[in-house]
Amino acid sequence: MTRVLVVDDQFLIRAGLVGLLDAAPGFEVVGEAADGEEAVRLAAETRPDVVLMDIRMPGVNGIEATERILAQAADRPPRVLVLTTFDLDEYVYGALRAGASGFLLKDSGPERLLAAVTAVDGGDALFAPSVTRRLVEAFARRQQPADTPPPPDLGVLTSREVQVLRLTARGLSNLEIADRLYISEATVKTHLNRTMSKLDLGSRAQAVVLAYETGLVTPGG
Question: Which residues does the UniProt record annotate as the domain HTH luxR-type (predicted)?
Answer without folding.
Answer: 150-215
